[in-house]
Known about the structure:
By secondary structure, the chain is an alpha/beta fold. The protein has 9 helices and 12 strands. The strands form 4 sheets. A 6-stranded mixed β-sheet has the order 7-6-3-8-9-12, sandwiched between helices. Strands 1-2 form a two-stranded antiparallel sheet. A two-stranded antiparallel ribbon has the order 4-5.
Amino acid sequence: MREIFSRLDKFEIRIRKAVNSQMHGNFSSIFKGSGLEFADLRTYQYGDDVRTIDWITTAKGQGAYVKIFKEEKEQTVFFLLDVSASQEVGKRGKLKIDRAKEICGTLALSALKESSHVGLYCFSDQKELYLKPQSGIKFAYKFILKLFQLEPESKVTDISGAIKFALNILKRKSVMILISDFRDDGYQQNLKALAKNHDLVVIHLYDKRELGLPSLGIIPIEDQERGTTRWVRTSSRDFRESLRLEFEEKSEELRTLCRKYDANYLEISSDEDFVTRLVDLFRLR
């Protein structure tokens, strides 16, 4: 476990150095969100920013009201990590789940070094692991240990249920980092709610074989979540094209949804250097 922690720490240092040397930006920005929390309402006064108007209260006809915010003293960073069987795809040592855990662990370490409170919910179609938000280096070791020792009990995915769990336990605006391959349906409405209530970062993991298999003749493809197997002709142009189109359509739908609701979206392949991609995430924020 010491070796894993050391590797993640090196990833975190690479990110920090890249941000400081290349971007001249604020490293902590990815975790600090807006830095503001709703406090109260007051009547509108000339010169107030119209973006702070509370239109629901104003619509009641008692005059125009604006929202008053106060600065947040502590920031919570909460990770939603998909550990379902569809993540068990990729080369040995570079499965999607391997990358997901490394990304989660690296960002958690960064957040804890910034004195944030950090929490974790690993999910399939049930709760696989929940760590209540805490801070400090002692908790960092616990976080990494629990994350990398986790062996999920279920193979199925329920992204919508995981989001609902997070919405129920975190009422105060937090930075939410959702890491998944998004091989699921019916989560879009809850994802909208998550983006509206929190500062959302979506990390979409994929394996290049999901975009197109090499020509290997007729081979069996196993759906680990459903426990089914189907035989496909990988040399078929129609089959290869349908794989690519399915992936691109789902990715674009997710990207568009994130853009519409001001959530950050980042695609990461399981076999690429994810550290440089995480630097891109800092640049976005």
